[in-house]
Write a structure and sequence with these properties.
This protein is an alpha/beta fold and about 500 residues long. The protein folds into two domains: about 280 residues, no CATH class; about 190 residues, no CATH class. Helix content is about 30%, strand content about 20%. The chain contains 13 helices and 19 strands. The strands form four sheets. Strands 9-19-10-18-11-17-16-13-12 form a nine-stranded mixed β-sheet, with helices on one face. Helix 2 packs across helix 6. The chain starts with a strand and ends in a 33-residue tail after the last strand.
């Protein structure tokens, strides 16, 4: 038995200030860089990515692996035409060469599901369409998805099964890849093809309401698992949607694979609709979040964690907005540290000045938000390389370029880097000599992923809305291409076209 394994991941924010070019798939921060067939298996095997799970299951089953291309870039604006065509072209060329070397019994592709390119709003649908065209109608294809996927009818049509992660924070990426490979092996051995059913919900779900560690999403995922078993499905795929993609396929979607697919899809959609009101929830203005954090920290035994949700690099932010940092300084926060602040120019200036130096810096501004002038003391310099240890990315190597720990006020430190990465791992702080658990206030540029590693050490978690592109309320974005019947927030009867 011989199967092909590859991947192409990007989460695209239609309104993010910077596009995603080919370079961004080379300079990836805390994720592996672009992999070619010669390096894919050895590089990916030790990571937390879905491809690692697929490789492990295939190797355990004694399956021969035909490696393809694997690529990832941090979330940002839509993928450029050049980057999409180059990487998709590389993937399809490697798939064609794999066929030249011998018959393929199946194909697994690690996808995100919310990629938008200049030419293809449903980029993953196009990737799967091209893969299907290369291997033909009879070779099974399965794919893993991020649950933030804007799963589309074309994606469901082109694949034999789609397997989203079950968790947000995504601590089961490797597991999802393994599950998708197990379904692929079942198809190869003669099971199926499974019947399919596809449904969409008619309301957008804010990112801050999608965390599976808390209600109501924790309950919805339990319902998903129960219904998959009740209806005897091979897979019940539920994707929360990425509510920053301006195309008709944006939003929550359900795909059922199995004999009772239609019944199951209807039942789960009804259960989701019944919970709509519970998904409504707000965040604190940055000033209020900092004031609360300072007040709580005076008597707390553990740090107060503040999420700078609207500058989340995991959602398309650039990691360089200064609103929350300015409030920490203005309100005189003590024992506070913020990570990860992405500013290559300021990091270079710190390295030129050296440890112990004091200099004037203008932090941020590259993403279009207001910069912040500070007097900074350089307390530590590093090369930005470290190994992640948290539940999401444990084992992944980060390479954030020349980095520094700077003090910008008596009680406020900043982790400054040359490349962006979401602050979902405590090693981002430890890499520059800060122990997060010892701080009074820990501020992270993240929306939800940070909870996997930081919530266990937190006195409490506050979600702050400072200026940034990953808006907590997607209804405020200037959409032009959504489907007319889609409502922009839970519990709101107004539709996009209304």
């Amino acid at each position: 038995m011989r199967v092909a394994i590859g991947g192409f991941q990007h989460e695209s924010h239609s309104f993010a200030p910077l596009p995603t070019g080919y370079r961004e798939f080379i300079e990836t921060g805390g994720f592996p860089t672009l992999q070619h067939p010669e390096t894919l298996v050895a590089t990916m095997r030790g990571t937390a990515q879905p491809a690692a799970g697929a490789i492990a299951v295939a190797e355990e089953a004694g399956v021969e692996i035909a490696p393809l291309v694997w690529a990832f870039a941090n979330p940002a604006g839509p993928v450029t035409r050049e980057a999409f065509e180059r990487i998709t072209g590389l993937m399809m060329a490697s798939l064609s060469r794999a066929l030249d070397a011998g018959p393929l019994d199946g194909v697994f592709i690690e996808l995100h599901g919310a990629m938008v390119s200049e030419d293809f709003p449903d980029a993953e649908g196009e990737i799967l369409r091209r893969a299907r065209a290369v291997v033909g109608p009879n070779v099974p294809i399965t794919a893993s998805l991020d649950p933030h996927a804007n799963m589309t009818a074309l994606m469901v049509e082109m694949a034999d099964a789609l397997v989203p992660y079950r968790t947000y924070p995504h601590v089961d990426m490797k597991y999802a890849g393994g599950q998708a490979m197990k379904l692929l092996l079942r198809r190869i051995k003669g099971e199926g093809p499974w019947k399919k059913a596809f449904r969409v919900a008619d309301f957008l779900l804010p990112i801050t309401s999608q965390c599976t560690m808390v209600e109501p999403m924790a309950g919805m995922m339990a319902t998903r698992a129960a219904m998959a078993e009740e209806y005897g499905l091979a897979e019940l795929a539920y994707c929360f949607g990425f509510p920053y993609a301006d195309f008709p396929g944006c939003g929550q979607a359900i795909a059922a694979f199995g004999e009772r697919a239609e019944e199951a899809a209807d039942a789960f959609l009804a259960a989701l609709n019944a919970q709509e009101a519970a998904f409504s929830g707000g965040v604190l203005p940055a000033g209020e979040a900092v004031a609360q954090a300072i007040r709580i920290a005076t008597t707390a035994s553990k740090p107060v964690v503040i999420a700078d949700t609207q500058d989340n690099p995991g959602g398309g932010g650039h990691g360089d907005t200064t609103g929350l940092l300015a409030e920490l300084i203005r309100q005189g926060a003590e024992g506070a540290a913020l990570a990860i602040f992405n500013d290559e120019r300021s990091a270079a200036a710190c390295h030129a000045a050296g440890e112990g130096a004091t200099l004037q810096l203008i932090l941020g501004g590259a993403s279009g938000e207001a910069p912040l002038e500070v007097t900074a003391t350089v307390e530590k310099l590093t090369n930005g390389q470290f190994t992640l240890s948290g539940p999401m990315g444990g084992g992944n190597r980060a390479n954030l370029g020349p980095s520094a720990r700077i003090r910008v006020a008596p009680g406020v430190q900043v982790v400054l880097t040359s490349l962006k990465m979401q602050a979902h791992d405590q090693e981002a702080f430890r890499s520059v000599g800060i122990e997060p658990a010892a701080m009074k206030i820990v501020a992270v540029k993240s929306s939800v992923h940070f909870r996997a590693h930081f919530q266990p050490i937190a006195e409490t978690v506050l979600v702050a809305a400072a200026p940034g592109p990953v808006v907590a309320d997607p209804a405020t974005l200037p959409f032009t291409n959504l489907r007319p019947d889609l409502r922009l927030r839970p519990g709101d009867n107004r539709t996009f076209g209304g």
